[in-house]
Design brief:
This protein is an all-alpha fold. The protein contains 34 helices and 4 strands. A hairpin with a 2-residue loop joins strand 3 and strand 4.
C-alpha cells in the first residue's frame, strides 16, 4: 500500500483532509488564482464528506502538489441562486408588509417548505460533488475506493436523521462507484489476480458491514441497495469470490433475510440476488458445501486451495434469524443427513440447514407471478447440483417435496368434478412459467380451463424439476409425488363407482401420462398404476394390484366412453419409454413360451380333419393347406440391430417366401364379399407400410437399451409345464376383439389401435404370439390370429342373412370417409362398421409383419 493510501486509510473519520474523489478527474494544465480569504462555506444538509463540506462555494477546489486551485466559476450562478432563496425567505419573514401572509401559513406548510429546501440543497450538493470529481485529477483506484467507502461510513457517524430514505443521500452513488472501481481493477489485471481494492474489501469486511446496514434497513431502503450491491458484485466479478470466508459468510447471512416477508418492497432485489448465487453454484458445484449449515455448529471447512477457514457458530450474532426459526423450517428427521457422502465437508453433521432453498421456497409463495417463476428457476438450478450432501439435504431437511406435492394437490382439487374428456385431451400444451391467460377467454372456451392449465403447468414444473435433479434427489421427489398425490388423491378418484367421476379422472390421468417425461417420475407413476410384481400372471393373482385390475376391467366397461378413454390411457402408456410397463402388461405372461404345443408328434392329441379338436378350422383358407411345420415358419428374427445374425440353415430366400405367406395370410383373412377397400381409391394395404415403418423405427430406438433378446428363448430352457394364461390385459383385448362385429365403431378403432401398437414391439415372443399365423398353439390357448379367424367364421355365417350386403358395406365405407352425405339409416350399421374395421386391421397387421421382416433382413449380414 502506498503512503498516500495508508494515510487515507488511517485518517480521522471527521477531521482528515478529504481523499481524491473520482477516476474521471483530469489534471488542469494551467494554474488559477487561489480562493479569496474569508470565504465561508455554504451549509450542506445531509451527508458531510470531510473537507469538501467545509469549503465555500468560491473555495471548492482540489489541492495537490503545488497547491493548484480551480475556481468553479460556472457554478456561481447556481450558488447565488441558493443564497437568493435564503434572502427572499428572510425578507418575507422580516417585511412588515407581508406579516399577515406569513401568519396564515400552517405548521404543516412550513415543514413541507423546509423539506423542499433540503431536497433542493441536496441536489446542489450532488451537482457540486460530481463537478469536483469531473475536474479533479485522477489518483490510484485504491484511494478512490477507500474514499467512497469512508464517505458512506461518515454518513452514519455524522447524520442524526435516520428517517430520510436512502435515495435522498449519496450512498447509492458511492456504492455504484465502488462497483465500477472493482470492475475496472479486475479488467486491468491478469485473470485470477486480486487487486488492492478487492483486498481492501475482503480485509476490512465491507460485505459484513453492508449486511448489518441492510438488515437494519437504515436509512430506509438500505436493504435494497445492499442486495443490489451483492448481486452486481457476484455478477460482474469473474474471479471466484464465494470461497472467501469474508464473502460467503455475509452472503449466507443475507440469504436468510430473503423471503422473510411476502410482497416485501425488496422482493425483486431478493430474487435477483438469490438467482445469481444459484448461478454461481451451478458454475462451481463444490461451493454448495459452504451453504449447508449445521444446525448447532459449523465444522471446519477448507477452501479449494487448502487454506483452513475459520469456524463459525451459526447461533452467534448477525444470523439473520433466530435458532427457533431455523429449526422450525426442518422439523422432520433431524438425524437424516448423518449418512451423507464423506466427500463433502459438511457431511459429518447430524443435520444441515439449506437456507438458500428455504428462501427460494418462501418466494415461490409470492403474489407476484414473475417472482414465483424466478424462484422456481433458482430451485431448478440447485436440484441439478451433483453434490450428494446437497441432494440429501435438499430432500430431507427442506420443504421442497412438500411444496411440490401440496401445490399439485391443491391445483388438482380446484378442478371441476366433471369435465369433457375431449376438452382435457385437446387443451393446448402447457410449459410452466409461460402460461399467459385471459380469464374471460378461458371461461368462454369451457368451464375449468384456467384451473386445468394451472394444474398442468405445475405438473410440468414438477416433471422438469425431477428430470433435471441429481439422481438420488430425483428419486426422493418422485416417490413423494407418488405417495402424496397419486396414491392419496388420484387413486380414490379412479376407484370410485360414479361413471362421470371415473371418466373425468381417467381423462386427467391420460393427460398426465402424456405429459410426464422424467424417468424417475414415470417409474413411480408406473409402479402406482401397475404394481411392482414381475412374476407371470395367473387367474388367481390378477387382482393382486387393485388399481391395475380396476383399470384393465374398465377397458371392458358397460360405458363405451369409459372403455374408450381407458383404452386410450393404455395406448399412451405402452408408448412410454419404460420397460416395466410392457413386462407387467404382456411380456411376463409370454416369457416361458408355454402358449406353444411342446409335446412330440406321437404324444399329441388325436387330430380331427388333420388338426387338434380345439384348433381353429382353417380349411376355408387355401393358404393354410401348406405344410405348417416349424421348418417352414419364419424363424425368430433379430428385430434389433445388435442381435446375432440368422442361422445359416435358414436362407434369405426361404424367409422371403415365408414373409409373403404371412402377409397374405392376414390380407386374405377377410373374404372377398366382405371387402370394400378395393372399391375406394387410396385405401390399399400399401398405405399402411409408411406408418408401420416409421412407428417400428421409433419403437426400436426406445427398446434398444433394454435387455430384450434377439431370438426366442430356446424350448429346452422354457418351463413348459406351467399352464398358459395370456394375462389380464391381453385377455380383455382378445375378448373385445372377438366382439368386433357387435361393438361401436369408436370402441373397435381403439381396441385395434392398442393391439397394433403391441404388434409393433420388437420382442421375439410378442412377435411370435401376435403375428405368426403358423405357430402350433397349445390346447386351450388362443392367439391374435386365431381370434380373428373365429370372428371371420362368425362373419361368414351372418353375411348370408343380410340382403345387399356388399352395396351397403360400400356405402358405409364412403360415409365414414366423408365421400357420401349422411342419408337414410342403414340396417346392421354396427356390423358393417365392424367389418370395415376388421378389414383395415388385417391390412395393418400385414404391413407390420412385412416391415419387421425387412428390418430383420437388413440388419443381418
Amino acid at each position: 500500500m502506498t503512503k498516500h493510501s495508508a494515510a487515507a486509510g488511517s485518517s480521522s473519520v471527521c477531521g482528515a483532509a478529504a481523499p481524491p474523489a473520482g477516476r474521471r478527474r483530469q489534471r488542469l494544465a494551467s494554474e488559477v488564482p487561489p480562493c479569496p480569504d474569508g470565504a465561508q462555506p455554504s451549509p450542506e444538509p445531509g451527508a458531510v464528506y470531510g473537507d469538501r463540506a467545509r469549503r465555500g462555494p468560491s473555495e471548492l477546489c482540489w489541492c495537490e502538489g503545488k497547491k493548484q486551485r480551480v475556481t468553479l466559476s460556472f457554478l456561481l450562478p447556481i450558488l447565488s441562486l441558493q443564497g437568493s432563496v435564503y434572502e427572499s425567505s428572510n425578507l418575507d419573514r422580516g417585511g412588515s408588509n407581508r406579516k399577515k401572509k406569513i401568519e396564515e401559513f400552517s405548521r404543516s406548510s412550513r415543514e413541507k417548505l423546509v423539506q423542499s429546501k433540503n431536497k433542493m440543497f441536496s441536489k446542489f450538493t450532488s451537482i457540486l460533488q460530481h463537478a469536483v470529481e469531473a475536474l479533479a485529477p485522477s489518483l490510484p483506484l485504491q484511494e478512490d475506493f477507500v474514499y467512497h467507502w469512508k464517505a458512506i461510513t461518515h454518513y452514519y457517524i455524522e447524520t442524526s436523521d435516520d428517517k430520510a430514505p436512502v435515495t435522498d443521500t449519496n450512498i447509492p452513488s458511492h456504492l455504484e462507484q465502488m462497483l465500477d472501481i472493482l470492475t475496472q481493477e479486475e479488467g486491468e489485471r491478469e485473470s485470477g489476480e486480486t487487486g488492492p481494492c478487492m483486498e481492501y474489501l475482503l480485509h476490512h469486511k465491507i460485505l459484513e458491514t453492508l449486511y448489518t446496514l441492510g438488515k437494519a434497513d437504515c436509512p430506509p431502503g438500505m436493504k435494497q441497495q445492499v442486495l443490489t450491491f451483492y448481486t452486481k458484485l457476484l455478477a460482474h466479478i469473474r474471479q471466484p469470490l464465494l470461497p472467501h470466508i469474508n464473502v460467503h459468510r455475509p452472503v449466507l447471512k443475507l440469504i436468510r433475510l430473503c423471503g422473510e416477508v411476502l410482497a416485501a418492497p425488496t422482493e425483486n432485489e431478493e430474487i435477483q440476488f438469490l438467482c445469481i448465487v444459484c448461478a454461481k453454484l451451478k458454475q462451481d458445484p463444490y461451493l454448495v458445501n459452504f451453504f449447508l449449515e449445521n444446525k448447532s455448529k459449523r465444522p471446519e471447512i477448507k477452501s479449494p486451495g487448502g487454506t483452513e477457514l475459520e469456524k463459525e457458530n451459526v447461533l452467534a450474532p448477525d444470523t439473520g434469524q433466530s435458532p427457533t426459526e431455523g429449526q422450525a423450517d426442518h422439523p422432520k428427521e433431524p438425524q437424516a443427513a448423518a449418512a451423507a457422502s464423506t466427500s463433502s465437508p459438511t457431511t459429518n453433521n447430524n443435520s444441515n440447514n439449506y437456507n438458500l432453498v428455504t428462501s427460494l421456497l418462501n418466494l415461490t409463495k409470492s403474489p407476484d407471478g414473475r417472482i414465483v417463476v424466478k424462484a422456481c428457476e433458482g430451485l431448478m438450478l440447485l436440484v441439478s447440483l451433483p453434490e450428494p450432501a446437497a441432494a440429501k439435504c435438499l430432500t430431507e431437511n427442506t420443504e421442497l417435496c412438500e411444496l411440490l406435492t401440496d401445490r399439485l394437490v391443491s391445483f388438482y382439487k380446484a378442478l371441476p368434478q366433471s369435465m369433457d374428456p375431449l376438452d382435457i385431451e385437446t387443451v393446448e400444451s402447457v410449459n410452466w412459467g409461460l402460461d399467459v391467460y385471459n380469464l374471460k377467454e378461458d371461461a368462454a372456451v369451457f368451464t375449468g380451463k384456467r384451473a386445468l392449465i394451472s394444474f398442468l403447468s405445475w405438473l410440468d414444473y414438477c416433471d422438469q424439476l425431477i428430470k433435471e435433479a441429481q439422481k438420488s434427489a430425483a428419486a426422493v421427489m418422485a416417490k413423494a409425488v407418488r405417495e402424496r398425490f397419486f396414491v392419496s388423491v388420484m387413486e380414490p378418484q379412479l376407484m370410485q363407482t360414479s361413471e362421470v367421476g371415473i371418466l373425468t379422472s381417467t381423462a386427467l390421468l391420460n393427460r398426465i401420462i402424456r405429459q410426464v417425461t422424467s424417468e424417475a417420475l414415470l417409474q413411480e407413476m408406473v409402479y402406482f398404476l401397475l404394481g411392482e410384481e414381475r412374476e407371470p400372471e395367473t387367474l388367481a393373482t390378477i387382482a393382486q394390484t387393485p388399481l391395475r385390475h380396476r383399470l384393465i376391467e374398465h377397458c371392458d366397461h358397460l360405458s363405451d366412453e369409459i372403455s374408450i378413454m381407458t383404452l386410450r390411457l393404455f395406448e399412451q402408456l405402452i408408448q412410454k419409454p419404460n420397460q416395466h410397463i410392457l413386462h407387467s402388461l404382456v411380456l411376463r405372461s409370454l416369457e416361458e413360451r408355454n402358449y406353444l404345443e411342446n409335446k412330440p408328434q406321437e404324444e399329441r392329441e388325436p387330430l380331427e380333419n388333420g388338426q387338434p379338436h380345439d384348433a381353429v378350422d382353417l380349411e376355408e383358407d387355401p393358404l393354410f393347406g401348406d405344410d405348417p411345420s416349424p421348418d417352414s415358419r419364419l424363424s425368430g428374427s433379430d428385430w434389433l440391430s445388435t442381435s446375432p445374425p440368422q442361422s445359416p440353415d435358414h436362407s434369405k430366400s426361404d424367409g422371403k417366401t415365408e414373409v409373403h405367406k404371412i402377409v397374405n395370410s392376414f390380407l386374405c383373412l377377410v373374404p372377398d364379399e366382405a371387402k370394400s377397400s378395393y372399391h375406394v381409391e387410396g385405401t390399399g394395404y400399401d398405405t399402411y407400410l409408411r406408418d408401420a415403418h416409421r412407428q417400428f423405427r421409433d419403437y426400436c430406438g426406445v427398446c434398444q437399451r433394454w435387455d430384450w433378446r434377439g431370438n426366442p428363448k430356446p424350448f429346452e430352457k422354457c418351463n413348459l409345464d406351467i399352464p398358459f394364461f395370456e394375462g389380464h390385459f391381453l385377455k380383455i383385448l382378445f375378448d373385445r376383439m372377438g366382439r368386433i362385429l357387435d361393438q361401436p365403431y369408436d370402441v373397435n378403432l381403439q381396441v385395434t389401435a392398442v393391439l397394433s401398437k403391441l404388434s409393433l414391439l420388437p420382442h421375439p415372443h410378442l412377435h411370435e404370439y401376435l403375428l405368426d399365423p403358423y405357430i402350433n398353439l397349445a390346447p386351450g390357448c388362443r392367439s391374435l390370429f386365431s381370434v380373428i379367424v373365429r370372428v371371420v367364421g362368425d362373419l361368414m355365417l351372418r353375411i348370408q342373412r343380410i340382403p345387399d350386403f356388399t352395396p351397403k358395406l360400400l356405402l358405409v365405407r364412403k360415409r365414414l370417409l366423408g365421400l357420401e352425405p349422411e342419408g337414410i339409416t342403414i340396417d346392421h350399421m354396427t356390423l358393417l362398421e365392424g367389418v370395415i374395421v376388421l378389414e383395415e386391421f388385417c391390412k395393418e397387421l400385414a404391413a407390420i409383419a412385412f416391415v419387421k421382416y425387412h428390418a430383420a433382413a437388413s440388419s443381418s449380414p
